[in-house]
Design goal:
By secondary structure, this protein is an alpha+beta fold. It has a single domain, classed as 2,3-Dihydroxybiphenyl 1,2-Dioxygenase, domain 1, CATH 3.10.180.10. Helix content is 12%, strand content 19%. The chain is built from one helix and four strands; from the N terminus they run βαβββ. It is globular, with a radius of gyration of 15 Å. The termini are far apart.
Amino acid sequence: MGGPRPSEDAGYNFSFATEKNYSRPVWPTVDGEPQMSLHLDIEVDDLEQAVAYAVGVGAEQAEYQPQETVRVMLDPAGHPFCLYTD
């Protein structure tokens, strides 16, 4: 995993790498299909605004939505993550 590293004084950081044999996960999960390997839950102040922003930068809203105050989103590679309000 080469490439730039986050600075030591930049708050929270995530580092990602690509995998040439990657298969997009299925949400909700289905036996025998690729499943998510990591899941992020991100608390937001305004759910509609956060969903709009996420879609604007390349995410999509998943068809299956299990809760009213949570939106399951998929990043461009298909990894699910949740935006939620308290």
